[in-house]
Specification:
Layout (H helix, E strand, L loop, with lengths): L1 E5 L11 H13 L3 E9 L5 E3 L2 E7 L11 H15 L4 E5 L4 H8 L8 E5 L3 H6 L7 H20 L2 E4 L2 H11 L6 E3 L27 E6 L8 H7 L7 E6 L5 H13 L6 E5 L6 H7 L2 E4 L8 H8 L4 E4 L6 H4 L3 E3 L4 H13 L6 H8 L1 H19 L5
Parallel strand pairs: 1-2, 1-5, 2-4, 5-6, 6-7, 7-8, 9-10, 9-12, 10-11, 12-13, 13-14
Antiparallel strand pairs: 3-4
Helix pairs in contact: 1-14, 2-3, 3-5, 7-12
Organism: Candidatus Hakubella thermalkaliphila
Pfam family, one: Glyco_transf_4
InterPro entries: Glyco_trans_1, Glyco_trans_4-like_N, Glycosyltransferase_grp1
Amino acid sequence: MNILRIVYDFPPPWSGLSPGTYELTKAQAELGNEVVVLCGGWPRRKSYSEKNLRAVRLLSALPKIGIILTYAPAVLFSLLRLTRIYKFDLIHGHNFSPLFYHLARKMGIKSKIPYILHMHITAAGRWQRSSPKVGFWTRLEWVLHRFSERIGCQVADDIICVSESVREEVQRFYKADPKKVLVISNGVNTKLFTPNGQKAQVEGMDEEKDIIILFVGVLRERKNLENLILALQFLEKRYKLLVVGTAQEKWYYRNILRMAREKALLDRIFFLGYIPYHELPSYYRLADVLVLPSHYEGSPKVVLEALASGVPAVVSRGYQADRYLESLVHRVEGNNPEETAQVIQEVTKKKGDVDVQVVREKYGWPKVAGQIQDVYSDVLFRSGQQEG
């Protein structure tokens, strides 16, 4: 099958959404599909090819303008060019990236090629929960993102949502037809993220004596890291917090540093900044528990990465995955520091409560790619086309 993927984030760099879109594409290529990816990053990043995979770089997002007036229109022109060269069986877009392609389909520029829209989170949900501190340009981008996603939900043949919460929002905010909305979880590279292997070394941290709490994610208000930092007050001093991720909101990073200093907790927190994707497994193996205290999430890859590494995951009520994955995590219902500390304490007293084999079988990328392949086959059947 020949697939055209439209997604801005594709490695390098190996951050944000890009590892997941790459792993999915790679798994699809290994199934025998030919996949062309229209991604951002040019001219800093160059196009490249691997077996059955071709990444075509389009314009990088510009400050304050974002991808809507750079990458997004380039997608439409590239798509028109590539469809003359390749015979694509199916187009697979992600979130708001294909804005101008969504508009073209909405305006009646018919395409015989079926279209799948993949929703990782909704711009409407982010808007509803946004802080007053979010700037004007970001809010303007979100208006355009919501517009693109709403049109995309109307013109797509099927909509894949990464979690039950995203499906609910797609139907509530964008009035998507429930018959064409389905949930397929994100996956995890179970060859990379395993319990066995080298552990990271962090200066000032004693693996034998300390109980290590891991946070992986960008440092921004939505991630609610302050709740986890304050939870340290209710835990013994041997509980240490390892923070992996870049500060996307500088004001927020300054605030949590000041708070940690005022609460005399700074000596128990280790801010490591960005860690490359392929080095992350050694940090998971070092940890006793992963904690995701977010106010709001789609289906972040860090939970599956932790579970595949044999590390239990504690999540807030802002995290909602598919129903089976929900049964594998430990939830903090109140999402306050004292309750967070209590759940962390309970989880770290247990050993070996993660069924790594189940995670491998159910959430490995080959499994997820196979589920999406079934969606493709169904859409092609409905459209009267045969698989390529």
